[in-house]
Design goal:
The radius of gyration is 18 Å and the shape is globular. By secondary structure, the chain is α/β, with parallel strands linked by helices. Helix 3 (99-110) crosses helix 8 and helix 5 (154-164) packs antiparallel against helix 6 (168-177). It has a seven-stranded mixed β-sheet with strand order 1-3-2-4-5-9-10. It has a three-stranded antiparallel β-sheet with strand order 6-8-7. 40% of the residues lie in helices and 16% in strands. It has one domain (5-135, 208-284): Rossmann fold (3-Layer(aba) Sandwich), CATH 3.40.50.1820.
Length: 285
Amino acid sequence: MNLHFFEWGPKSGTPPAPATPTLLFLHGMGGTGAIWRAIAAQLEDHFLCIAPDQRAHGESRPVPPGEDTLFKATDYARDVKQLIETQGWRDVIVIGHSMGARNALALGHLCVGQPGLIRRVVCVDIGMKGAWGGGMGKPLAEFLENLPREFNDRKVMRDYLFANCPDASIAQYLSAVAKNVAATDEPERIVFPFDHEDVVETIRQANQSQQDSIPAWAVELARIGTPVMFLHGATSKVWPKADYDAQKAQYESEGIEFQTWENCGHGLPFEQRAKFVEFVKGIAN
């Protein structure tokens, strides 16, 4: 399917230098490309920054007939690959958060055999094994199934999210992406930028066989010379420290790097924004 995407580039109006990579940001479940705006604002003077709304999210809705049952990582990745090829972007650094990290690895897998397309893959706080990368699948699916479609007050929404969401960082994330769609003279109508049934189906389709693909895709990319980096928030509930330590011990090698960032959890890019921006600059230069 065709994805809506945000594009931010050098403010001078001139294109980036030929050797400059394109930065492609993939949001997590329930978000949109707009969540990356504050980060891209500190990068756009020198880099082309792309942030699509992935299928069933933001303006990439509704998913068209024939595609509306497909919510595996490779389905999400196929959309993004089509976008890259249609726009003619090359030398892409793919940076994915949460669900977007899983999709970033799937994208790298789909692009094997196309040299020059993907330079590097960065996976932010997604486990390499287990249900939904760390055991959040069932409680998160149950939470989303029961999440009201709209609220008439932002405070009520926040109170509900923090009382019921299985992870406070996910509650904060959903609170940030929710929008008031009411007219200025009408009562608030706070809604979320995703199709609820489709994100629940995404979790259901992230079965064990899909999860087993994450380390396989990382190893595959490292083998062909495409570096993969996993960033972990030290207090993350999505990727518990014990799982992170075990997976780092098993998979860290030439081409696969792991980093733990202190004083943050699952929302690492947004909780440590300044550090994250400098990190991106470092890997892009």
